Amino acid sequence: MQHGGIALDVEAGTTDDSTVIDVNGLTLRTVDGEDVDVRVEDGPRGAYRLFVPAVESDTVMRLVVPSLDADTELTFTVLPVRDWTIHVVHHSHFDIGYTDPQAIVLAHQRSFLDSALELLRDSGGELDGERFRWVVESIFTFESWAQSRPQHLVDEFVGYVREGRAELTALPYNLHTDTCSTDELHELLRTARRIAAQYDIPIPSAMQTDVPGTVVGLPDALAENDVKYLAVAHNWAGRSMPQLNGGQLLPRLFRWAAPSGKSVLVWLTDSPHGMAYMEGPLLGFHQDYSAVEDHLPVYLESLAANPYPFPPGVFGWHGTSHAVDRTPYPWDIVHLRTQGFVGDNAPARRRAADIAREWNETWLSPTIRISTNADFFEDAEKRLGDEIQTFEGDWGDWWVEGVGSAAYPMTLVRDAQAKVTDAQTVSAVRALVTGADLPGEAEQSEDTYRTISMFNEHTWGAGNSWRFSDHGFDSGEVQWQWKVANSIVAQQTAGEYLERASAFLGADLGVADGARASFYAVNTTAIERDTAVRIFVRESTVPMGTAFTLHDGRTGESLPYVEEAQSNHEHREAGRFVTARVRSLPSVGFVRIDLRTTDGDPESAAAASTFVADPLVLENEHLRVHVDLSMSRIASIVELSTGRELLNPDSLFGGNEYIYDLYTSAGGFNHQSNKTSTSEELELLGDRWRARPAALIERESDAVEERLVYEYPAAGAEWVRVTLRLRHGEPALVIENRIAKDMTDAKESAFFAFPFAGDDPVVRYEVSGGVTGDGLEHVPGAPQHMRAVRDWVTVESADGAVAWVTKDVPLVERGVIALPYAPFPASTSPYEPGTILSWVHNNVWDTNFPTRQAFEATFSYAIGVRPAESSTSGSPSASGFVEEIAVATSAALVHPPLVVQANARSTEADAPAERSLLAVSDARVKLVAVHSLGGGRLLVRLQSFVDAPVSVDVAVPGGIASAAAATFLGEEREPLTVSGTTVTVEIPRLSPRAVILTLA
């Protein structure tokens, strides 16, 4: 619109080979014959531009061109135009890798900030909406830059942030948030909180770019840390079809609420709106004014008139007829991302600002404003107010399937995620016992989380991930080595943190009188439990030829144990492992176990195995398990207290059955997924295999457990070895699947199936920061054919409940095996609502993720039920028990007891037989960790899995001086009332909460 009119471009040309169209003297009339003012100017690419008055409604007009036949009229409809405001947000999409080796990317991202600072200086005198602005997409890049630049330059940049000419956003990088732990989600905000406090600046916005989906716990983490706005750009890349699940009904601007009620205001852009985050470059904002003048009006017209401005088939959009259900964009304010070039990791440039200035000098409307995210969101809130809809629930990641391309590194990261919370809690136990703090703990904890999250960052490889160059998109192997190193270092760092916390605790605990050594079995969970405790007895403590006994330090009772030799013994610590069963291990506490040497035969000191009548049946107080070697699967699991069969006898699959798929798509072609789809004919499913019959390797019944080991050959693996453990007194079956897998470029997947019985089951999944599944809302468009889970899945029917826990790999499917190509059709039938399939590994991506993997690794699972003693009261599916089962089963597998050897040098050191140092009253609420903040202050992190608000008592037997609600990062909020040794914490439904306790 210029001076209240509309610009129409008319192509110049010929009606035939001899007649040239001449627009001199043309006239424009309404259908009623009324003359309409029109002005003609030269337009782009040799066209003429006609200026006509703006209209209030659709208006048909007739154009007469004298150079044509006098009777020829060109009839067209002039539409009303919106008075658009376009907020152009200039940033660099931050891939840590992909376009270059990581070191090069990081160096150039820092250089982009140097350029941005120079451009900010040079544009100070320009009009506010037209001068250069720079948005830091990921605060990690600012942190890295600030650490390597003089302070006065950092202060100068922060000054521009205060002025609103630059923007820092709150998240460190773009992540697969579905693979983060709940505490890690919150730890992602620590850098932003520190920088905000250091420079006294708000950081109200966050960005997530590229990854099409975000986990349910993120809005709670953002809102808790004063982040109000979230700008996301979903790159479908042929791997995402949100319109299958209602994604076309999701508006671009909406409020995303967590189950707690906390929320963030979201702006969504995606592939059919302009290659996700490349909207601006596609319209010419990285080029020049003429390109934008040519493309922007057409884009806005399409945005206002069509479901999406671009049609199906572009940018990895496998379009369907569902897309037409979408209402065209209704508002006159738009957030438009732009980059320095059409590419990731693009530099800061002033082209967009120059274009905005020239545009605004030329046109009255639309208005282009060079903005920050906060500028846009504040403007949108003022304009739209109550028109903004609210959505709740999980908004899962369509790309998370790609993490199956790194099955073994993922086991390392998940192990690190468990160890870091164990380390925090062990350190807190020491603080509760001695009042002493672990030196440097805050830094060690933060470093561990940083390394873990760096692996969960979304760039898992080069653009051409199968290549071996040292440069650019072909630097696949170099980039993958850097990425895998983060998983290795994450596990190492978390392990060192836990080792250090344990050593400091051990140094404060004494040896019991008369004992050769004392060990403390530490429970880092809030669940009192009967459990197996595995102790390493050094040869320096007890020589290998010396017999010994173990005793419960509370009663002196002898503890039968099972001995296990050290592996790789010539190169590891000399000694042996012993495992004993300990009863009533207290919540967040420990029991002392005393070792006494004897004069007996060392071989007879350990408990002997007992005779097994049926080697293919395992049984304890809670479960009976039967194995079918001919089919290499678990044939039956019976809950003894109720007699119910946990496995579906009519399923296509057996329990823990291995399935291997090969696909017919070819690897080694960049973005092949953008062009690859399938149909219900399953053209891309090449073959599918089950395992061959198994051989029985071992069957033991000893003082600790019933154990069965079998092994089988299978397609896609050299061998698979399964170890089943049914420990005495524990209501859970532990399954350890060890796979030896060769490298291949063929497209492949492997699954383990768990077909649970029950009519019309309610299935729910623990995801980072919350729960999703049956009966719970999810953001329209979230994937439903697969997802990543944190620890557990529950299956509950009228017959009872069961919890399935995965320790090492996160990907699951339900009911069927989906073919992993758009539109992800079912490849098995019928749909089995209680069947959970663990998707162990795949290599279906063609870019970014690695295309091949080999490993020999163990993937562990557990299947848990209610303890037999609690099953005698109430109905099998009594409300609340399912969450208790999930919390207890995941604790048993993911957080087994830790063992600390007493190492106090003083003979007068205290040797307590038992301590319970902290308790949580509701077994449906998980204790994530207890973290010592120093000075007698503890941060208690909790996660409720209850679909209703709950009041939870947190008790410290030693007494609480004061308490306050807190963020997960340890920032105090409102004070809480303390009643002696207890404080009550109110937790919203399905939400995390934290409290700070000051010890008495």
UniProtKB/TrEMBL annotation:
Matching Pfam families: Glyco_hydro_38N
Biological process terms in GO annotation: mannose metabolic process
Needed cofactors: Zn(2+)
SUPFAM superfamilies named in the record: Galactose mutarotase-like (SSF74650), Glycoside hydrolase/deacetylase (SSF88713)
Gene Ontology MF term list: alpha-mannosidase activity; carbohydrate binding
Matching Gene3D superfamilies: Glycoside hydrolase 38, N terminal domain (3.20.110.10)
Glycoside hydrolase family 38 N-terminal domain location: 85-382
UniProt keyword list: Zinc
Entry keyword Zinc: yes
CDD domains reported for this sequence: GH38N_AMII_like_1
PANTHER family in the record: ALPHA-MANNOSIDASE, LYSOSOMAL ALPHA-MANNOSIDASE
Name recorded for this polypeptide: Alpha-mannosidase
Phylogenetic classification of the source organism: Bacteria, Bacillati, Actinomycetota, Actinomycetes, Micrococcales
